[in-house]
Amino acid sequence: MIEEKQKQVIVEKLGEPANSYEDFTASLPADECRYAVYDFDFMTEENVPKSRIIFIAWSPDTSKVRNKMIYASSKDRFKRELDGIQIELQATDPTEMGLDVIKSRST
Fold it and tell me: Where in the numbering of this chain does the ADF-H domain appear (predicted)?
């Protein structure tokens, strides 16, 4: 999350490997923007294990305009600091980052 007073991105929460994708999406606030990174492990149709690092810019419609502007204006700079991002999603509601979307973008 962006800490406005300190003007920096801080890690608000870390997930556990045993957590599901649904646990991950449920942990995002319903009315505040966040940056999120998810390590998506899956099997291809050929039964080959694969992994994709997904960057999600979560900007729900219910968040305040100032919050949306701060996240939108700093997203590219922040994303450049991350290594290994393979897929980027911009989501304003949970359906835009559903597991079906993740799977279709990962293959």
Answer: 1-107
Residues paired with 40 in a beta bridge: 52
Distance of CA 79 to the CA centre of its chain: 11
Q: How many CA atoms lie within 13 A of 71 on its CB side?
A: 22
For 42, the 3-state DSSP assignment is: strand
The tens-digit pLDDT sequence of the chain (107 residues) is 999 888 888 999 999 988 999 999 999 999 999 999 999 999 888 999 999 999 999 999 999 999 999 999 999 999 988 989 999 999 999 999 999 999 899 87
Question: What is the 3 state secondary structure string of 13-32?
Answer: CCCCCCCCHHHHHHCCCCCC
Question: Model pTM?
Answer: 0.90
Q: Which domains does the chain have, with CATH numbers?
A: 2-10+19-106 (3.40.20.10)
